[in-house]
Design goal:
The chain is α+β, with helices and mostly antiparallel strands and about 110 residues long. The protein has helices at about 35-50, 65-70; strands spanning about 1-5, 10-15, 20-25, 55-60, 75-85, 90-100. It is globular and about 35 Å long.
Length: about 110
C-alpha cells in the first residue's frame, strides 16, 4: 500500500495484490490535483519492479470518471467480469470492467 498526503490527512492511496492494482482511492478534495496520476504511476512502477508484465484492475461498471482516467493513463478495457468481494455478511458479487496494461520488462 502507498499513501499520498501528510500523516493524518491522506489525499489518497493505492494498494497492490499480486498482478492487480487492487485499490485506488483519492479523496474528494484532492481530485484534480495530480494525486491519482502519481499513485497510478507509482503502482505501475512497483508492479514492474515485482516482475509483472501485464497488470490489471477492476472498475465498477458505470464509473465513467474512473474509466476515463484509467484510459488516459494508458490502461485498456478488455471486457467485463464479476468480482467476488469479501464482506462481513459474506461474499458479494460486483460486475466490473476489467482494464489491463502491459508494463515494461527489465532493461
Amino acid at each position: 500500500m502507498r499513501v499520498a498526503g501528510p500523516p493524518g490527512e491522506p489525499a489518497g492511496f493505492a494498494m497492490l495484490k499480486n498482478d492487480e492494482l487492487y485499490q485506488l482511492y483519492v479523496s474528494r478534495q484532492s481530485r484534480g490535483a495530480g494525486v491519482a496520476a502519481a499513485l497510478i504511476a507509482d503502482a505501475e512502477a512497483r508492479l514492474a519492479l515485482y516482475g509483472v508484465r501485464k497488470a490489471w484492475l477492476a472498475c465498477a461498471i458505470g464509473n465513467e470518471r474512473a474509466a476515463r482516467f484509467y484510459e488516459k493513463s494508458g490502461w485498456h478495457r478488455v471486457g467485463s467480469m464479476t468480482s467476488i468481494l469479501a464482506t462481513a455478511n459474506g461474499p458479494f458479487s460486483l460486475a466490473v470492467w476489467r482494464y489491463e496494461e502491459n508494463l515494461p520488462g527489465p532493461g
